[in-house]
Amino acid sequence: LRAQYILRIARQFKMQSSAISNISDWRKPYAERNQLEDLLHSIPAPAPYTVWLRWFEQGTAIIKETNSPNEPNQMALATATRDGCPSVRYVLLKGHDERGFYFYTNYSSRKGKELAENPRASLCQYWPELNRSIRIEGRVERTSAENSEAYFRSRPLPSQIGAAVSPQSQVVPSRDFLEDRRRELDARVSQGESVARPESWGGYCVLPTSYEFWQGQRDRLHDRVRFRRRQDLTDEEMRMAQPAEGDWVCERLAP
Fold first, then answer.
1. Catalytic option among 27, 220, 230, 252
2. Alpha-carbon distance 170 to 159, whole Å?
3. What pTM was computed for the model?
4. Which segments constitute the Pyridoxine 5'-phosphate oxidase dimerisation C-terminal domain (predicted)?
5. For the domain 32-146+200-252, what is the CATH code?
6. What is the tens place of the pLDDT at every residue in 12-29?
């Protein structure tokens, strides 16, 4: 009986392992959606920030309606060294306007160092509930000290303390090292000391040079629409583009 039990467990494990490892068969069908067609049939098309804002609001609404664990303002941030070695991580979008998209971090972190030597970045937002993603590429600038200070003061006190005690991306000896630093600052704060914003901590703004809107479609014939600045296109590329608001043009991309 024991041998039969062990054999049955082994077979179950083999089946589960096979199902997990055979990821080439994983495939989720997407519903047909036509939201991007409106862009391609409106002349001029709206400015990309207007489209971004509409999608961001819809993504936020569906996440709240479905009680999704996803955060509507989460985004992947890709940076690269001067010689092109890339890195990517998730950060939270903390501000936006027609000029650009804002996030905050430690300037001495890996992304901070890479942005110092190669001030370009790419953002990617994804809302699986809607089968949508947006890619944004552009130049990156630091925000002013006043802007960084204002945002730092708007954060909850524990988040201010976390930023103050963490030497982000640096090697530390243990978790206890961080907890000891936090307890030490907690004790000083409880005695009335305020948390100073570290000079190495502040904001960045990604200034878009392109937006790409992706809508999942059935049979993997997804919709992709890209906005770029008119001056960045060649004459040949302009023949395939249509005008959008301001100095933007709109292009259809094959999936």
1. 220
2. 19
3. 0.86
4. 201-255
5. 2.30.110.10
6. 656 555 556 677 777 777
